[in-house]
Amino acid sequence: MKNFTKVTLLLVAMMFFGQLASAQTVGKESWMIGGSLGFSSQKYKNDEASSSILNINPSAGYYFADDFAFLLGISFFNISYDGSSTSSFNLAPGLRYYVTEPIFIQADASFGLDDDGGSVFGISVGYSWFLNNSIAIEPAVFFNTANNEGDNFDYTSFGLSIGIQAFLHHDHGMGN
Question: Which of 118, 139, 156, 168 is spaced 20 to 30 A from 45 at the CA atom?
Answer without folding.
Answer: 139
